Amino acid sequence: MSPVQIGIMIAGYLAVMIKSLIKQGGFSTILADSQQGGRLNAWDFDLNPFRRHTFWTVVIGGTLGWVNVYGTNQAQVQRYAACRSVAQARIALFINLLGLWAILLSAMFAGLCIYSVYKRCDPWTAGLVSVPDELLPFLVKHTMAGEHGLLGLFFSAVYCGSLSTVSSSINALAAMTLEDLIKPYTAMSEKRLTALSKALSESFTLISLIWFLHIRGSHHHRLGDRRAAIGPVLSGNALSVCQHQSKNIPTLL
Asked: Can you give 103-161 as a three-state secondary structure string?
C-alpha cells in the first residue's frame, strides 16, 4: 500500500470523525455514549470461546489472524521478497505497522462515532441499511451531504483501501498460478510468460467481479470464511518450518 493511499484513507476517516465530533459536541460525549452502551468493555475475561468479543478471543484470535496476514499471506510474502535485504524488509514492515495502527484506531473510533450518532435510532434495525457494512456510508451521507468535496474524499478513501487489497491479492494469485501450475510444465519465453501473467490477472479480476455480484454478504460473514482457512494455512507453513528440525513435530502438526 503506497503512502498516498494510506494518506487518503486516513484523511477520509478524519473527515468522518471530525464531522461526528462537531455534531455530537466533542470527544467526551462520544466516549461517554460508548461507555454507557457497553462498547468500551475491553477487560471482559470471560472464557467462553463462543462469544464474539472478549479479551481472550481478541488477543488469541487476533494474534493468529495477524500472524496469518503478515507471516503466511502470499501477497505479503511477495512484498518481503521484493526488498533488497532482510533489514530493509524489517524497516518496511515497521513503517507498514505504523500506518496499520493509524487506520485501525481510526476505524475503531469511527465505529464509536456511528454508535454515538445513532444510539437512539439504529439504521440497521430500522431497515435503512441492509447490512452493517453500510452504516459508515450512511453516516457519511447523513452528515456530509452539504459539504463540498467530503463525499468525494470518502469515496476515494474506500477506493484506495479496496484497490490496495484487491490488486495485491490478484497479483499474488496470478504469480502462484504461473509459478506452480504453468512454468514447471511449459517452456515459454519471458515475454510470453509476462503476457500470460497479465491475462491471468485480468481473468481473476473478472472472476472476482462475478463472485461479488452473485454472492453478496456482510463483512462479518466474509471474515468468518477467511478465519476458517487460517488454521490449515498456518499449520501447513509451520509444518514446512518444523520439518527440518524434528521428525516428530510434523507428525503432531
From this structure: HHHHHHHHHHHHHHHCCCCCCCCCCCCCCHHHHHHHHHHHHHCCCCCHHHHHHHHHHHH
**pLDDT tens for each residue of 32-52:** 999 898 888 878 888 888 887
Contacts of 163 (CB under 8 A, 6+ apart): 5
DSSP label at 184? G
- Alpha-carbon distance of 3 to 92, in angstroms, equals 12
Contact by Cβ (8 Å): 111, 25:
no
> Mean per-residue pLDDT for 76-97?
88
HSE-CB at 70 with a 13 A cutoff on CA atoms is: 13
For residue range 209-246, list pLDDT tens digits in order: 887 776 655 555 566 666 666 667 777 777 766 665 55
Show contacts of 195-201: CB within 8 Å, 24+ apart. Answer: 200/173, 200/174, 201/170, 201/171, 201/173, 201/174
Q: Which of 72-76, 204-208, 224-228 has the highest mean pLDDT?
A: 204-208
Task: Using alpha carbons, select from 99, 137, 112, 87 the residue that is nearest to residue 29.
Answer: 112
Instruction: Please give the pLDDT value at position 221.
Output: 56
C-alpha to C-alpha distance for 1 and 170, rounded to whole angstroms: 14
Domain boundaries, the chain: 3-165
